[in-house]
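Table S2 (continued). Query chain:
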Amino acid sequence: MYETDGEDCAMVFAVRRIFYAAVTLASFAAAMPVNVPAYADDLRQEMRLVTGDAFPPFADRAYDGGGIVTEVVRRSFDAMGYQNVSVIWRSWLKGFEMTVEGRVDGTFPYAQTPSRKKLVLFSEPITNLSAYGWFARKHEKYDDNIDLLGKSLCLPLGHGELGHTGKLLASGQAKRVSPPDMKTCFKLLAAGRVDSVVSPVPEALNAMSEAGLSPDDFDHIGQSLSNMPLYFVVGVNHPSAQRIIKDFNAGLATLRESGELEKILSQARY
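Corresponding output:
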């Protein structure tokens, strides 16, 4: 150790101040994310979306344009000047997870549930869809939704518990069975291993076809279990979540006003 006079002390303190300032700036810079995209500039250049498959006529690789909702989403962003909107296909569960984590810029089509509202922002509704309780004619016949009390209901992984279905399951008045896909749900129904499958008509008919089953062997309760609006969604933690939703809604409104939205949606019955 050594002692210093006043001038030396002043110099030491000045050096210390510079050193501490440099350390502070270095720490701040280290804490900043690396390679963060300039979303304000880049989104219109490249928008990366994800959706699931085998949800006809809304999202399905077998359909022209990937399904009618896929087409609506693309056209909505086109109307707002987005130049390159790419869509990748993953399982519904994986696609939603990627959206929540911010690895993609959005996903579709999804219905609102309380749990999802905590994780994603929802657009204005794109369209509406009704889901029904299906039964196998050779095993059972249900005339009303009340007949599903105490029954096992098949909903694939990633499918929300909506409307009356959600009430039955939440109250313990029905039991959920969740295989990977709707095709498996109908195989289980045909084998008598579940009592009912909850599905919209187009998705049900597609699943029966994929499973090699005849639609003549099944029927559904006339009263719908749920009538659900379908939405485009963005993860709440995405840096540009609010802007993406705002732009999508504006593009969707443009399609609606021009009549293009109705034209796209009327391509299929559902």
